[in-house]
Design a protein that fits this description.
Two copies of one chain form a homodimer.
Chain A (H helix, E strand, L loop, with lengths): L5 E4 L1 H5 L9 H12 L5 E6 L12 H6 L7 E5 L3 H9 L4 E7 L2 H8 L3 H18 L2 E7 L3 E2 L3 E2 L2 H12 L5 E6 L6 H15 L4 E5 L6 H11 L3 E4 L19 H10 L8 H15 L8 H16 L1
Parallel strand pairs in A: 1-2, 1-10, 2-3, 3-4, 4-5, 5-8, 8-9, 9-10
Antiparallel strand pairs in A: 6-7
Helix pairs in contact in A: 2-11, 7-8, 8-9, 10-12
């Protein structure tokens, strides 16, 4: 029996949220419609944040109200209880909440202390259980913080244990600034798996230092089976040329499928999504394997079928 | 004590040998001089092949005759006994010989049968022992052959065992067409390490499918400590835009150093080599991490010192 890798496609949220080019609701719907066709099991559709703070995500409620029918699980990022209420009202049943592992990142990012952020997360987790809403908790900057430097695995494990008390549907260890290396991933995820098991865990990597795919492999070696990725590798700081964003879905899919792990993602449909994204962004998008994959995707499929 | 990773820098050979732009002897000497300054422990300076067949490598004897003094080990590729004699005469004391793991690759590449190639390798190994010359044997297309498809690990292990009888200084398992994935690397290199130990083994990866750095990590996990790489990721087929060549030295160095493995390579000097290479090739060169590293190399050094 082929083992399954669950990919959450985040281009419509993490991919778009910091781009200088803002897409309209209709354009984001076109992206999501193309992602639905790939067969990817989870799609993050946007975030319920203030449109003043993040204009790129304005109208996520409109998108939520008219999502195409699919077997894929839709989710949205909610920054706080207000966002939770909005997402719930919009019919979203899987919410992502992000907590930074360091005091300074929480202060700089959302002007809350570490303690306040944890209280907020706990309040949302308790409330979500009453509502039957699934929560994916993201522990952000879990390897390194741009303000405080390296984050100790002991801190992450303690915070993870605290969050697990309120039973999130998933706990995602997030390398928000792309500073992890495969040895650090292997070591931290081994510990997390030992404490919490694989089913509840996920990983979220950025490709800043070109190690994201190696980090995904390290995560797989530790037993992780749930990964975030973004079609075309969209995401991250768009003002740094050559500095890549999220690990690209096509890179994760092709590596996993070639290794005999089933992602359920149709590669030609995914390449079509990247094409749609390139049109919408008016600039060529594509992960590290994009060029090769465009001309050779049959080889991956054949490998997998064999 | 920090563990050591031995990098053989192959840009001056594997990097240049298939480029449409041919460098002069003086230009190649400038590249090698800049590589010497990086502290990389091994530098492949070219190959002793027919200049009619590979004009990019013409004059390797002139380069060999005027190499800068350094602690680095120089080596050259020799295609056959004639090349061996030429390299020996030119003063090269470490020779690389390449044998393909499949019948068809040997036929198409050097018009010899698999059996003939092994006999040639054995003759060179016997002769080299008399001369006190170190031989690095490359087992090419060890994961997949462009003509015969996947190569079974059993075949590779059998061929490796046969070659080991004549005691090469190193046996390099080479993913010549960049078709390996980290699971296949891990599995094959585990077997190789179990049979031959880590000291004699090396790996050579191409980044065609964007998995080269993940493959290096998988090799490290299997115990491999010797890797080929090319400054700027130069190499491979230059006619396929976006299709990368050899795994980039800067990507391997930054990953290893961040994981606390000592490569002995000075990152700013390496980035200078990539700059030299860009000037010589008249097109921008650079590995996957190049942009980030150019602006942030201090972070890697700090990480390593910690």
């Amino acid at each position: 029996m082929t083992e399954r890798i669950i990919i959450k496609e985040v281009s419509a949220r993490d991919g778009l949220q910091a781009q200088p080019k803002h897409l309209s609701v209709e354009q984001r719907q076109r992206l999501i419609a193309s992602l639905v066709k790939t067969g990817v099991p989870e799609i993050e559709i946007g975030s319920f944040v203030s449109p003043k703070a993040v204009p790129q995500m304005a109208g996520t409620d409109q998108i939520a109200a008219a999502l195409p029918e699919t077997a894929a699980e839709y989710s949205a990022l909610v920054p706080n209880m207000k966002g939770y209420e909005l997402a719930l009202k919009a019919g979203i049943r899987t919410h992502a909440i992000a907590i930074s592992a360091t005091e300074q990142m929480n202060q700089n990012n959302i002007r809350k202390s570490l303690a306040e952020t944890f209280t907020m997360a706990e309040d949302i987790l308790v409330r979500a259980r009453e509502d039957g809403v699934a929560i994916h908790v993201y522990l952000a900057v879990a390897f390194e913080c741009p303000y405080e430097g390296k984050v100790s695995p002991a801190t992450v494990l303690e915070q993870a244990a605290q969050l697990m008390r309120n039973e999130p549907a998933r706990l995602v260890i997030a390398d928000t600034i792309g500073a992890a290396d495969p040895a650090s991933v292997r070591s931290l995820m081994n510990e997390c798996v030992a404490q919490f098991g694989t089913d509840v865990l996920g990983c979220h990597f950025h490709d800043t230092r070109a190690m994201a795919l190696a980090n995904v492999y390290a995560g797989i070696e530790s037993g992780i089976r749930q990964f975030d990725s973004s079609a075309g590798g969209l995401g991250g700081c768009p003002f740094a040329p050559g500095a890549k964003g999220n690990v690209a879905t096509e890179d994760v899919v092709s590596m996993c499928e070639q290794m005999g792990l089933d992602t359920g993602v149709d590669i030609p449909a995914l390449l079509e999504s990247v094409k749609v994204l390139s049109e919408l962004m008016e600039s060529p998008q594509g992960g590290r394997s994009h060029y090769w994959l465009n001309n050779n995707w049959q080889k991956i499929s054949r490998d997998h079928a064999a």
